[in-house]
Amino acid sequence: MKPDSRDIHFDEDGHLNEEGVALYVDGLRLERTKRLPEAIQAHVADCQQCRISVTDLYVLLEGDQVEQAHPTLHKPTGQWSLIFRVAAMVTVTVGIAAIVYFFTRPSPEVPSSSGATITLAGPDSALHPVTPEKQPHAGAKESIAANYDALPELESLVGGGTRGEAFESLSPASWPHGSDIYLRWKTTGPGPWTIVLVDNLGKNLKEARADRAELRLAGPFRPGLYYWKVLQNGELMYVGKFRVEK
Amino acid sequence: MSAPPPDNQKDLELLKTDLPALLLRHQQTVQIIVRRYVSSGMFKWEDFEDTVQSVNEQLIVRMPSIQSGFNGTTLFRTYFSAIVRNICLSLYKGSQRQPKMFRINESIQAAQDETSDHHHIEHARQLFKVVMKQFDYKSDLPRLLFLLKLRYKIPIQKGDVLGWYPRCPREDFATLLTAFGKDYQNWMEKEIYAFIAPIMNRALKKENSPDSLRKWTLGKIAQIIELLNGNPPRAAFNEETLKILVEDFFSPFLLNQE
To answer: From A84's CA, which of B98, B135, B194, B238 has a CA 20 to 30 Å away?
Structure first.
């Protein structure tokens, strides 16, 4: 019976022995690492000590000629060739089926739950525990789309304010569902500022003071469109907006 | 100087029948390895002959166990080199000598000897690929490369996502390419990890925080730098030079531009 790689290529501490290190280096030099025993590949991917041994030996042998014929990393022939061909056909068939499934499956839906309003935490607080969202029903797709409708009175002010100072948002325009939101801006004048977060129905969700030109809003946020107003001394300096994607 | 042309069959024959002849056949291999360790500063030049002799003394003692212990799964010369390496390391152990180190950034910036620098740059490129190859198991490498791109704010492409998230939903895919598919130099590090963590968690079915993802990335970077430098060190790569190598890896002509 063919001895297991674990018996031949590993020492009593579970690391590659000299023959194991040499085999991996041969694999690198012949660009046949995928043909190495699974146990060796998995171990090296996870073990810095063995990677150091492999890399060091590789560097020592750099420039040295290497034989293409190899006792372990050779091209399979005969019955093994047939087995590999059959395995390749099965793999391709499964791959095609997976591609067809991926492109024809329905869009993922929001997970079901009892439903509750997600409240916002303060700017420096820990992540608010996620309260699962409602399972969308027949009319839910409409309400999800409505979460992204623009709010006319703020939409017209996006990118500007009522004061003349130059103001520029440095924040991304969209965020993935589940993330915290980082608001950053650049302006000529000093702070502090008051940031007001508004949803697309015009409801003020949160007001916070920012001493520096940045603010973290702890998520998660319901997917939709949001506006953020920057005020100073009661005057509106800037209106920005961002989307939280589904 | 170079070792004799490889002939694994000849080595295996001698391993069975004539150990002294086998050791003689691989004397140049011993000298090449000791010379490389001398060049890296591990041993002094004036001790070269003595070091070769010490290595041979240990090899003579070990040859019978090499003969009985070698399973023939690898090329004998590679296996023999691994043994010589370990003997050299055991001779070096306890030494206080600091190895001199090659500095790639000085080579690129100063460029006094073009031929030598081109060789060093090619060596560094190849070494980087060899190091990264060792992380290539399942989807570990595509994810690591993706995080390196984000770390150094290199614009991502479609394949960079699909490598570690082959079933990425259209929404996440669009979000990632919109955010990181073009220049994003003004993004802060914490913004990037806050942005990417939930998407990676969905892909990997984990609950990693942005900070733990950041620490994982920095840990891998430290490991890559250690591998590039060797242990004991033979080079002095740092994160600045690693960034150059990563950028070159994704844009191969970067280091060749005038």
So the answer is: B135
